[in-house]
Amino acid sequence: MNSRKFDKYEGFVVYFSGGRDSYVTLKLAYHVAKALNKPIVVVFIDTTIGIKETRDYVKSVVSRLGIELIVIRPKLTYKEYAAKYPYWPHITGIRWCMFMLKIYPIADWLKENPRYLKWLHILGVRKAESTHRNTFYNELFSVRCYKKNICVETWYPLLYVSDDKIEELVKYFGNERNPVWEKLGRSGDCECAAAHDEDDLERVLIYYPEIAKEWYEIDEVIHKNRKSSEPSYMFGLRKKKIRYKDWYEQKIKEIDKLKIKVSIKMPYTGKGCKGSCLR
Fold first, then answer.
1. How confident is the model over 233-245, as a mean pLDDT?
2. What is the pLDDT of residue 262?
3. 119 Rama sector, left if φ>0, alpha if ψ -120 to 50, beta otherwise
4. How confident is the model at residue 276 (pLDDT cuts 50, 70, 90)?
5. pTM for this prediction
6. Comparing C-alpha atoms, which of 30, 8, 9, 11 is closest to residue 157?
């Protein structure tokens, strides 16, 4: 790629979720920035419903590179938003979590730090991640808007990279692995459960019981604040029509059998919302 393509940008902003794609993207952007003598910062979005191992992993990788890590947080926690929007978000419907936990916090951060509007923003989006991304992402460079008049020029260096190639690139760039990858098969930065199937819920219960317990509390918050008498079901429990609270209490009784079931290493499948979050 012609290096003059990057001349007009004052620096690079890389979004790092702790997943494989964003790990490769970060390493690639770091080397490009170093070669062009451009400043670079890393942005991690603390969704307030992420896994601590992922947060620690992100801090560790960025620290070894010796560059600045900027942590963005939403105005409220996931649990607090669940009280305002009392239903479980689903990938097939309106997801308040995507806007409140990621899109709007980025917009607010850019509004407060306008100098970064002139920097090139870099995301690890790939067409192979989902039907949505395969349909709507067709250019390596585009303008991305988070709110009206808050738009940035964005580069998607991995857009046409296949699933098979990603693992090769992870190893090529140092093979620093997030332990969540093998346990859950995703980054673990946002466990909003908008696309989690029942197997996902079981694995979280075993490996990250603190997240499962928080879901239990959130389920109670949702149903305490609902105006409708109809229950709200998690995405992975919608067909069974069982509330997460009831599911959780039943699974706790079967915990020993469940530990055996989920002991097999999980193949990496991508982001928690199947490659559709941040659109």
1. 97
2. 81
3. beta
4. low
5. 0.93
6. 30
d(CA 100, CA 154): 21
* CA–CA gap between residue 54 and residue 276 (Å, rounded): 19
Tokens 């997801």 map to which residue?
95
Extract the tokens encoding 24. Answer: 């490769």
pLDDT of residue 71: 98
For residues 56 and 178, what is the distance between their CA atoms, to the nearest angstrom?
9
- 3-state SS record for the chain: CCHHHHCCCCCEEEECCCCHHHHHHHHHHHHHHHHHCCCEEEEEECCCCCCHHHHHHHHHHHHHHCCEEEEECCCCCHHHHHHHCCCCCCCCCCCHHHHHHHHHHHHHHHHHCHHHHHCEEECCCCHHHCHHHHHHCCCCEEEEEEECCEEEEEECCCCCCCHHHHHHHHHHCCCCCCHHHHHHCCCCCCCCCCCCCHHHHHHHHHHCHHHHHHHHHHHHHHHHHCCCCCCCCCHHHCCCCCCHHHHHHHHHHCHHHHHHHCCCCCCCCCCCCCCCCCC
Q: Contact at 8 Å (CB) between 189 and 18?
A: yes
pLDDT tens column, 124-172: 999 888 777 878 888 999 999 999 999 999 999 999 999 889 999 999 9
